[in-house]
## 1
Amino acid sequence: SELRSALGSVVRTINGEKYVNPASPHEFKAARDGLAKSLYVSLFDWIVRHLNHLNGASHGPQNVIGLLDIFGFE
């Protein structure tokens, strides 16, 4: 698949020439984890925006929804 190919290869540019090599297991895991974190953050931000929109929340301190992110990557 395209995703496996993108995560499983490393493109390096040396003196203007591009070289595509297979990713090491460490590089593959780092790319996979980076993608997962990016998807998680985007989904979490969307959920917060959607909840705020549904509740008609303004940006003032009087309207606050507290969410505890216990499964985060931080």
## 2
Amino acid sequence: HTSLPTHRSLPKAPQFGSVEEESSHDLATQRHELLTIVQHLVCLSPKQMRIDYPKRLRDYIEVSQDKFQLTLPVKKAPKISFTLPLPQVDAHWGFAKLLLKLGSDTLMNVLMLLLIERSVLVLGENSTEVTACSCALLELLQPFKWAG
């Protein structure tokens, strides 16, 4: 059980002046204060946390979805709005990395190799990316079942 920060505990929003007037230390302090405010604002309510993906894709398209909306305390900042539930970043990020690193043709070839039960070795310089890409490959195989 994690306690969520309340809006009552928010520090006052920093006022940004012109870049020429501010020292780098002042700008860093203001950035830190703004990030602290954003961190407090970006909290889902308990009701929003319980929202799950619809069971049928058609419901996701046709039914109006709840949204998480946030207005940042910065002049001219656009309103941030996400459809709930929030995407599964780990799976989506791994797939995006796979697609960027391999390209669609190579990714399709890797999937074909996995489907015919060939071994595939995933290598990389960053262990986080290797893990995310490996998990994404497993997720892409999820709909398939081994027949024998």
## 3
Amino acid sequence: MDETKRPLKIPPEFTMYAEKNELFSLYEAQLVEKESGIHKIDTDDLFTVDIEPVKQARACVDREDDIPGDVLGALVKERISKKDCADNGWMLVGYPKTRDQALALQRHGIFAKHVVFMDAPDMVLIERFMGKRVDPQTGGIYHLTFEPPESPEVTRRIKPLENQTEKHFRKQLLHYHRNVEGIRAAVCKGTTKIINADQPKSDVYAQVYHFLCQQSRSVAPQCPRVILQGPRGSGKATQAALLAAKYGLVNVSMVELIKQAIADNSKVGNMMSTYIDKKMMGRKTNRHLVDIGPLPDNIVLKCLVERLSKLDCATKGWVLRGYPRSRHQAEALSEAGYAPNRVYFLECPTDTIVERLSLRRTDPVTGQAFHLIYNPPPSLEIKRRLKTHHKDAESAVDEDVLSYDSQVEELMDYYATSQGVNADQDPHTVFESIESLLTKPLPKQTLKATL
């Protein structure tokens, strides 16, 4: 790497060599131990944020209902953006309480590095709850058996908590048992730990602290280089955004790269502008770049390599969509030193793709996007003025699918370690499937194909 040139570009051989020779494992160590300072976020703390959803959340708590997932996500996102949480970290206590809340936090880009589940028998929890007392003067919490007041004066004035009945607490336990498995399934497996809470507090603390101070081990690539393949409408953009949000990968879209290069009047952008303006087609390549026009493969690759060689891609990893579209492009990408270590093909029936794309509409007044089934316009007035993009016409969608189908077998053959994912599901279910594949070793039968 030439340090005299700016911006610094990391040669692709660096990460390839490190991964091949397992150099990343040399740097695995426990996190530097930290004592206090992490900010605790509970219900009362969430209600201190100054945004509109607080009223709705407070009303739900007053009714003893679950806070809607998106409302909770908005509150937590706003709270953790404050300086105290940004500087010292945060600890969310008592949430999420349902699978919907867990998924909503992920939709808002909130992913906890550690998730601790405290487990204890119901009878132990009931005994702890029923023995709690509060001092109305100081707010101190005591327990008649495990932590009684030290002075007779405090003993005389302590009172039971509000709604401190066994029936009420059993109702809360039932709600927890109904939802806990869904919550565990929604969070990343490598970040969770179940700790036995039926032991002294010091022992529980020691186990929790030890878990927080260790790096989570994973067989996922240390520097992921992910390619998402699939026809237009299969959900590549959605999955790329989720992967980028959770794992910190750089989200690279080939179409957006080309548009940005042209807008910036860069050297590569000017080369592409010449082909687009003069319609120098040469041969029919990159059919899917309908808004940009067909471009020579070498120019497109040069634009992509410039982005992948930057420092953030080399250190964080990347998730690429929209390229390669043919075996020739895939071979050129590998020869340039940017071979992926994970390739996923999003498989989706043509009927579903047509439904997703042909029913999309855009409001020419506000620019807002709608879908006639999944996200219909709120009023008849808006519905009447909606427009359909020419790319979303059913005939154009069918043509795109045929173009993709003509190349997909060659791409699958070239990427012998690629894996298929059923994309005809809820986006977060698809993401969970991709995530489970990313954090597992490649199947042995595909590894043999590369020997």
